[in-house]
Amino acid sequence: MSTTAKVVATADRILSEHPNFGDSNRILAKVYARYRFGAELFADRLPGVAAALERLDTMPDADVRRIFFDPLVRLATEDAFTELETGQLASPHRLEDLLPKAIAALPSGLCQSHMLARWDLSSDERHWMWAIAGSCDPYAAQLQTAFDGIFSASPANRGTLLNPDAAARTKVQDAIALLSMLLPNSGTAALRHVGAIALLDAQLEGGIVLSAAGGDLTPSTVFISLEQLGNPWDIAGCLLHEGLHMKLFDAARSVSLAKAPDETIQVPWRNVRWSIVRAIFAYHVYVHLSLFKAAALCADKRSFELFGDPSAYVIRPHAMSVVNNDTAAQYGRSIDRARYLGHMLQTQWSPLLSAGGIDFVDWLRSSLDPVDEAVFSEAPEALCATN
Residues with Cβ < 8 Å from 199, sequence gap 6 or more? Predict the structure, then answer.
């Protein structure tokens, strides 16, 4: 292993070890505990949840994940938390219908069991792919409605769900394998927070959508455009990107990141202001994408034999691509954006961060700095080599 590859491997390990932000096993254990405890709280007001408590109490975490990482169940559960806090939680409630049916659907997730086709993916955690386009199933209809809500903010937005076929499944599976090969610790950790993957063709006011995290409307789900991405290296990068958002959503349930989460800032590569929380989430992504790029630059021959040489793929340049960046632009690479955000979050924007947010940013920057020095201080293209 080259000296550069060792630096990359060390950062990959460090980014999976922080007890609050890196260690996915620890973060997910908190998530599962929160849902178990939430069910106990809801049971006082929701008889349908109370009837499921005994089964939940004896259920292994793997099954708890299958239940509560189902997008409809998770959405109903988070709604129940909000309604409990505001004193509005009452029966009948969607969770009383969904939770028993999700338990009955094990070992599949509830929505997965109602897909037009079963598309399981293999990794450290089980993932599945949506196949609902053209379905008349009521759960598919709920998912479609949730998906449509993502694009309802502007008439210029559009989004279409696509059903996967065997070739699409193979592409996504290859991307998962590639990500796990290059970043076996931090890449795999990010994927653990993804429940489902859906394919889309979409456009927002800012342009064509390459990938997206489901957020509040379709939790546990990431969306990717295979047609726009086209190659396993950038598909892997998008899965890493969206998985990191999911991971930080889960981590931030127990650790505050910002004193003033709604305070806005301006970044030089976008013409809209971001909340400070969005800047923190973006920094998390750009640090990891820079590491992924570094891992690709010092990848061995086997990666190229299995997934093709990144330089052989033709795509339009963008900052989050492993294959092609706009090196002429001031912020045309993930490392450029990571440097900028890290500096600003530790200086001008630092008063907006909580103690947890300061710790988070310091950890990310100290993890990336050795990689930046070893890989990106010289022209990155010169470092592409097979060992």
Answer: 129, 130, 161, 162, 163, 164, 168, 223, 224, 225, 226
**Half-sphere exposure of residue 225: CA atoms within 13 angstroms, side-chain side:** 14
Distance CA 242, CA 129 (A): 15
Residues of the chain by 3-state class (helix, strand, coil), percent to 5 = 55, 10, 35
- Note the Cα 51 to chain centre separation in Å: 33
Cβ atoms < 10 Å from Cβ of 371: 23
CB 172 within 8 A of CB 196: no
Instruction: Give dist(CA 66, CA 180) in Å, integer.
Output: 22
How confident is the model over 161-176, as a mean pLDDT?
95
- Of 246, 191, 187, 192, residue with least CA distance to 220: 246
Q: What is the pLDDT of residues 95-151, one digit of tens each?
A: 999 999 999 999 999 999 999 998 998 777 889 999 999 999 999 999 999 998 887
- Mean pLDDT, rounded, of the chain: 92
Task: List pLDDT tens digits, range 37-91.
Answer: 999 999 999 999 999 999 999 999 999 999 999 999 999 999 999 999 999 999 9
Nearest to 367 by CA among 310, 308, 286: 286
Say if strands 274-275 and 158-162 run parallel, antiparallel, or are unpaired: unpaired
Task: Specify the DSSP class assigned to residue 131.
Answer: -
Task: Yes or no: say if 242 and 212 are a contact pair by the CB < 8 Å rule.
Answer: yes
Distance CA 106, CA 373 (A): 48
Phi, then psi, of 89 in degrees rounded to 5:
-70, 125
